[in-house]
Amino acid sequence: MKITGIPRRYQLLLLCFCAAFISYIDRVNISVATIAMQESLGWSDSVKGYVLSSFFIGYMLLQAPAGYIASRYGGKVVLTVAVAWWSLFTILTPLAAIVSLPLLIITRIAMGLGEAAMFPGAYALLGRWIPVPERSRSVALLLSGVPIGTVFALIVTGWIITEFGWPSVFYVFGGAGLIWMVFWLPNASDGPELDPKISDSEKDYIVQNSETPTGNKRFYTPWKLILTAPAVWALIINHFCSNWSFYILLAWLPSYFKQVQGFSITYAGLFSAAPWLINFLMINIASWIADTMIERGRSVTFVRKLMQSFGLGVSGVFLLLVTVTSDGLTSVILMCAALGAHGFTWSGFGPNHLDLAPRHAGLLLGITNTAGTLPGVIGIAVTGLLVEATGAFTSAFILAACINFIGVLVWLFWGTGRKIVD
Asked: C-alpha angle with apex 207: 359 to 369, nearest 5 degrees?
């Protein structure tokens, strides 16, 4: 189905946003579903942690290869295969869970392999389609699919499980990716110079305001320069630190509200959605602030350092405050504040891949998101072990806050918004 009436670069951005949205409804539904699955299948908290973290094994393994392929050959084919792949394994999840725990683990790893190509593919497309003056806002819109998909999944999953049983949610959400393909295939394009539907005026604007050559031109990959630059390692470390609290809240927030605050499974999903809605709002507010500051003469480096440091530092403070409250409403408010502050990081480390290496943004995203996926593998499982060992979430939230503060220090010393790779 063709899309008309809006500029081509925004059509591609909208479709990438929808892919990110679908990836997160498929990823997050199990955070709520495992509450019912745990009761039905007799899992311990540590087993549930292994199930939740298994997705990230596959997700981590294919990040860098997917980024390399997307940077070299374009994001269109990468996203096409990725969405079809993870949608299939989402649909297969209930059958795998019923057959055996090892098969469920394998299925979740396979799903992670598909979703690994989502953001490297999208960043490769943004690098070719989005001009520099629109960079922060475009990345923010793409990444808005994360909290919006999370909010949608948290609100809807509990209701679907209550009405139709936990297997149904995987069938419904897995089918969404197949519907997306109907819109993607006739509209996707790897660059404005290859696109027959783009206007001459839009093509000229993109080319004149872009640091990244368009089309299918192949580029030499300066591996040594990328892997030895302190700014790249600051980005790698901050992707890891930012994702630690992000992923443990993504996976464990519904369980925290149910186990600690005593909410029902439906209300656990609903109250878990509120912080992610605030996160979505602050991602886009922060991106507007960031682009406005840059347009008014602030250096990109200053803006990236301000956004990242504020996001991680303030979020860490609110995570510590959560550990000293026992009131349900107060804990919801503090979680909203923590994830709201975290939204500023999407204008810090988020667009920094395009700042440092616009021609190789997909590859760089694949490299940093490999480290950024480790919290999904380690952090989620460690959280399950800590909860089982202590009977509370206090130690898990303190650990997350400390990791946030480490990220701030690294970013202030070595982060930059200057281009390091031509």
From this structure: 25
Dihedral angle at the C-alpha atoms of 248, 251, 255, 257, nearest 10 degrees? 70
Greater confidence (87 vs 354) lies with 87
Mean pLDDT of 396-419: 94
- Phi and psi at 196, nearest 5°, equal -80, -15
pTM of the model: 0.77
Handedness of CA 180, 27, 56, 313 (dihedral sign): positive
Dihedral over alpha carbons 291, 358, 278, 176 (to 10 degrees): 130
Question: 258: helix, coil or strand?
Answer: helix
pLDDT of residue 89: 95
- What is residue 88's predicted lDDT score, i.e. its pLDDT? 95
Token duo for residue 46: 């540590």
Q: Which residues contact 401 (CB under 8 A, 6 or more apart)?
A: 245, 316, 317, 319, 320
Distance (Å, rounded) from C-alpha 65 to C-alpha 82? 13
CA distance 86 to 58: 11
DSSP label at 343?
G
Q: What are phi and psi of 353, to 5 degrees?
A: -60, -40
Distance CA 111, CA 55 (A): 7
pLDDT in tens, 124-169: 888 788 887 787 788 888 988 888 888 888 788 888 888 888 899 9
Cβ pair 261, 328 in contact under 8 A: yes
Instruction: Please give the angle made by the CA atoms of 125, 89 and 23, to the nearest 5 degrees.
Output: 35
Q: How far apart are CA 93 and CA 105, in angstroms?
A: 9
Q: What percent of the chain has pLDDT over 70?
A: 94
Which residues neighbour 403 within 8 Å (Cβ) at sequence distance 6 or greater?
Answer: 241, 244, 245
Gap between the Cα atoms of 253 and 250, Å rounded: 6
Whether pLDDT at 219 is above 60: no
Taking residues 98-102, what's their average pLDDT?
A: 89
Is residue 310 over pLDDT 70?
yes
C-alpha to C-alpha distance for 243 and 374, rounded to whole angstroms: 9
> Residue 150, SS3?
helix
Q: What is the rounded CA–CA span in Å between residue 299 and residue 90?
A: 43
226 to each of 39, 118, 119, 232, how far by Cα in Å? 47, 22, 19, 7
Contact predicate 271/333, CB 8 Å = no
Which pair of tokens denotes residue 275? 């912080």
